[in-house]
Model the fold of this input.
Amino acid sequence: MIGILPGLPSNVAGFKATGEVTKDDFEKVIFPEVKRHTTLSGKLNFVFYVDTPLKNFSIGAWIRDIWLGMKQFASWRKIAIISDVEKIRNFTDNISFLLPGEYKGFAVAQLEEAIRWAATEEQSAGEKPSEDEIPPHIEKLLPPQVKGRSTMTTAQVTAGKETDARFIFERATKRLLDVNEWTDHCGALSAGFQLTDDEGEPLKGRAAVGDYIRIDIPGPSTDEGRGYDWVRIEKIEQPAPSPSGGISLLQVRPCANPQTKDTAVIAHFLEDSATSNFVVEWEDRRVSATVYGRNEVPNTAHPGTADKVRNAVVGTLGAIGLSKVQWKALVEGLLQKE
Done:
């Protein structure tokens, strides 16, 4: 069973699992309390004390009952899972790649520490600011936001001189258009990126409009994409830089697998309403790299059951994880030194 933990700070929803855990426990205890918290504050800090053997609460239940069950709640912040089961703690520590928010596993003896951690309000460096903080000259380059989620992940550096900033901008632009090197810039937990032609055959060199990008995301793969997610480059813009500024833009959209010409089914965890818009900007001594996600809706209309479930998990939750981890690693990698 699952009960509500008493005496918690007002900005934390807390629960304790004991004995046998059922789906009804989530639907009747957790979901209503979480909805109450998110309605009141617009965000969720969540503490879950698991005081029951692993056989009563499988790792599979985490995905099926908690994360999919609460997929409609977008404002995840801090999630603390307290357990003396090492597998559960390790799973919690590594799940941020696929799920929104910041996750951390604690031993039972650290219960009070876990509550304090969850209650502490901190703004992530990569957290999306409000829409009105996007400069108008950038907003006009992006597709209108009409449905689903919008995300923004950014990094920036300040150079000592404008000439240095220009060099960083030009280097970051070159890296942006060299898609095959994205994995190296992102680091160990990165997805794999490969530029391809309209037959799905690997390409070398600079990206161009009409090229495809084959993405190997860690975790479950798709049947439709033959193990990959696919996007197509639909826009590249590089307005001529001024003496003290410039912008480079690369825009991609989910698409069908170019290797299967007889289907128009989107081979990606998001619908083709979504776009990822990569922008490198130079202004005076500042250079920034930002990924703007627009109209992100999970692609669950696929007729294949396996892909539908996979896309529901990765699309609803993984898109946010990608923007937080994958895209953060990329924008920082575009700007960093050799």
User: Anything to note?
Assistant: The chain is about 30% helix and 25% strand.
